[in-house]
Amino acid sequence: MTPDQEAFLAKKKEKAAARRQKPEEKGELGMTSLMDIVSIIVVYLLKSYASDPVVINPTAGQKIPLSTADAPMQDGIPIFVTLRGITFDDKKIVSMTPEGDIDPNSVNQHLIGPLYDALAEQVDKAKTLGENTGKPWAGRAIIVGDQELKFSALVDVMYTAGRAEFTDYSFCIIRKG
Amino acid sequence: MARKKFEEEEVQANLLPVMNIMFLLIPALLLAMEFASMASINVSPPKFSSAPSEPKPEDEKKEKPLNLKVFVMEDGYRVSADGQQEGAEAGKAADSKAPTIPLAKAGAPLNDWDRYDYKALEASAAKYKSLFPNETIVTISAEAKIPMQAMIYTMDALAGNSCKIGKALKGEKVPDDCYFWQPIVEGGAG
After folding, report:
1. Contact residues on chain B for A70, CB-CB shorter than 8 A
2. Searching chain A, which residue's CA lies closest to the CA of residue B112?
3. Pairing state between β B182-185 and B137-142
4. Alpha carbon distance A146, B55 (integer Å)
5. CB distance B121 to B33 below 8 Å
């Protein structure tokens, strides 16, 4: 071993000894950057939810129609009409036949009885709320249908909503592209 | 004999590897999410939109309403304006035997969304719009079995597929490529 190599090894041992004697440093996590990211995500999520006055959560298996329309969703009361049934206020109130028609026991001359009762109750509540808050009731029904929903069923739902004093209708769609 | 005292050491979990994984997971999950942008098509029932109001003197000077109607049938579209069906036999107001615009894919099932000729319908809407530039209302009806998606695509074609009406609803000018963007849905009467 040459003197240079010996000197190098000696230096290396010294360094290793110094490292061993040095107390272990505690690594601390910088929380500032984490909080920055979390704050941005929270603001983004709040904004994306707050921009829509109505949050539509399609029921299981429901395929909302696609469209090129871009009109923003306006405030209203959603009625979910799928091939399985009509859901209103998170309750399934009317069933559909396997052929995709509304259960004939629930319909009388285009009027869907259980849906009318539920809508009328909701209208009363909305009107009372509107009177108390000074905000007039919009009278808008948002029909969240299914791609394969028959026109006859759609018309019955619209007719029933009309009888329950809804004056405006919107079809909920998913924007294409 | 003195007993050795064991002091309980406070062990802090090393959060760095967890945070590394979390920061990889957040963008991965955000990218994996499918965002569906919801919008709406505002429709009117016939009794509210087409209810005849008291005629005002200035209304008499206005142009005659187009009264455009589109009936979606299983074998195509029947288009009529001012009570006259487009392409009807001579001397007849309507010809229920033949649709005005036949299917683009004849024999296709009802849930084949390309079975209707939306381009021809849009061209027809553009033609009527050029004749009645101030008209925006169209009455749409359909046979009982017609699926909702076909109705929506029909409304899109009548409004114009490139029509962006969102800004106009907030007070801006209605774009020129928007034809009949105020649909009235009428019960299925031919």
Report:
1. 39, 164-166
2. A148
3. parallel
4. 40
5. no
CA B108/CA A169 separation, integer angstroms: 31
List pLDDT tens digits, range A138-156. 888 999 999 999 999 999 9
Query: CA torsion B160→B166→B167→B173, rounded to 10°?
Result: 40
Cβ distance of A67 and B155 shorter than 8 Å: yes
Which of B33, B38, B140 is the best mutation test for A, with the most CBs of A within 10 A?
B38
Q: Distance between CA atoms of A140 and B42, rounded to whole angstroms?
A: 10
Three state DSSP letters for B117-181? CHHHHHHHHHHHHHHCCCCCEEEEEECCCCEHHHHHHHHHHHHCCCCCCCCHHHCCCCCCCCCCC
CA A155 to chain centre: 26
Could you give the CA distance from residue A101 to residue A98 in angstroms, rounded to a whole number?
A: 7
Sequence spans of domains, chain A: 66-175
pLDDT(B188) > 70: no
Q: At what angle do helices B118-131 and B148-159 cross, to 10 degrees?
A: 40
Domain boundaries, chain B: 46-185
pLDDT at B94: 61
Q: Which of A68, A73, A163 to mutate to test the interface with B (most CBs of B within 10 A)?
A: A68
B87: left (phi over 0), alpha (psi -120 to 50) or beta: left
The predicted complex's ipTM stands at 0.76
Contact between B143 and A66 using a beta-carbon 8 Å cutoff: no
pLDDT at B12 over 80: no
